[in-house]
Write the structure tokens for this entry.
Amino acid sequence: MIGVSRRHVGRSRSLLAILLAATLSSPRAAGWDGAYERLLFDIRWLFVPAGVALVEARPRGEARVLLRVEACSNAALDLFYRVRDLAAVEVLREDGHLRPLQYRYSQTEGSHRSELVSDFSRAGEVVQHDRLKGRRRAFPVPEDVADMVTAFFRTRALDLAPDAGPWRIPVFDKGKSYLLEIEVLRRERIDTLLGKDTPTVVIRPRLQTEGIFKRTGDIFIWLTDDARHLPVRMESRVRIGSIVSSLIAIEREPVPLPAEGLACEALRETRAAQAPR
């Protein structure tokens, strides 16, 4: 097995990211099916509307895929804590396995800004360019290492039965290379976009770097308990309270990328216009 190991298999350093590796042992685990997919999320902070997010897979020919994750705060939150976050990665798809080539991370959260571009194209090395500081640095990494977005899509293809983990995956994120552990906690039925009492499986990735909205505590992800493992709910601790993201739409027809700005900005305006007055 490439890029994933179980705790009882041994201490060998396996390979990869927030969420998978390569060859799968379970025939029911399939994850993302390779077609265009855009998942839209409503974000709430302390039970009040905070913004919108999207996760997108955009195939580019036979072997290339553009993966994107975006988050935008709403107009009210913009007044005191503006969020515009983008993580986008060009990925090579070989026999269903996703290998990152170039990863871009752009973050605006309050007064904090970050602009990082990471080149994964050489095996065993990631070259990270900090555009704001004008600094470039090479980091040694496992050969099958992934960024966090690619890792999430890989995780969806894992066998996520509660007795199947934990999984260990090597990741590179924001200048740090580490072995990410993903715990499969339990099965749970919750009300989702897909219907009442949707069967889900709950996982906890042990992240060592901050994510969107400056996560400071544990993060929990509810995935559908079927072959696709669609994320339907995410919950994470932040400096004050918690952030909850709930799936509100699934789009399978390609949506054009904006000429400038983020797609989530147009999404939040649409959501605002549809809100009851």
